[in-house]
Amino acid sequence: MNFIKKYFEHIGLTKEDIESKEIKQYKINGDGISLVIRYLDYLKEQHKHQQERQTTIENKNSQLVGQAGVIISIFTLFIPLLIDKLMDLSLMVLILLILGFVIIMFHYLLTIFHSTKTLGINKYKYATRTTKTVTGSGRKTDELSFLEQEINDLIYIIDTNSVQDNRKASNLIYATRSFRIASFSFVIFTLFIIGISFFISSKPHAIDIKSIDSSIYTKSHKLIQEQQIDYHSEIKEMSNKVSRLENKLFVMDSMYKKILTESINDSINVK
């Protein structure tokens, strides 16, 4: 149970919210103008670094969303191609494959879930400089007071925005962990499928005809009978024609013999 709790914390399913920092105000208290300017330059450099860090975190989160989406698409196209072959495996192997598939898909989806949190801009309230520092009725009228106000503005911006950046960074950390687990699991899953593919025998699938529509059989049988009747009728008709032809030939042969006999007799009588 303790392992599951730590694992959930590792992938960000259970986590604590990042607390806001206590923002302090800067007072000059006799500091020289050169030192105040050094303070200001230091804060400006820190603010610039913070903006670069924010951009890097957001870009990496967007990259993870794209990479996880592409892999999920490939993965979902890859599995259906093996369904027919995998159905011949034992129940235990099928359960392991289904469990592996669920684990991989869960962690890739968790990667997208953590990364897309960064895209919810309404959930991250960043501070920025305001024109009221210059145009407001309470604006500073001397240089040191204005530098003090500018320093306090930068302190507020840096402390407030660092909390928001840390929230985005935590999402990136959890998304990266989930993506790493999913990727390693995908490699193991692929090697496992390649291994068991050597033990899958390609058996020809027999076609089992369970029932034949009686109407189709009746129509086919009737058509065959009609064709047989037509065939026998044609044979009978041809046989009749041959018989009539033979009768005619027999009559003609008899007449020819009779004529020939009469001719011979006439010739004998003449002699």
Automatic annotation (TrEMBL):
Entry keyword set: Membrane, Transmembrane, Transmembrane helix
Keyword Membrane part of the UniProt annotation: yes
Transmembrane segments annotated in the record for this chain: 64-83, 89-110, 181-200
Highest taxon listed in the record's lineage: Bacteria
Protein name: Uncharacterized protein
Species of the source: Flammeovirga aprica JL-4
Lineage of the species this protein comes from: Bacteria, Pseudomonadati, Bacteroidota, Cytophagia, Cytophagales
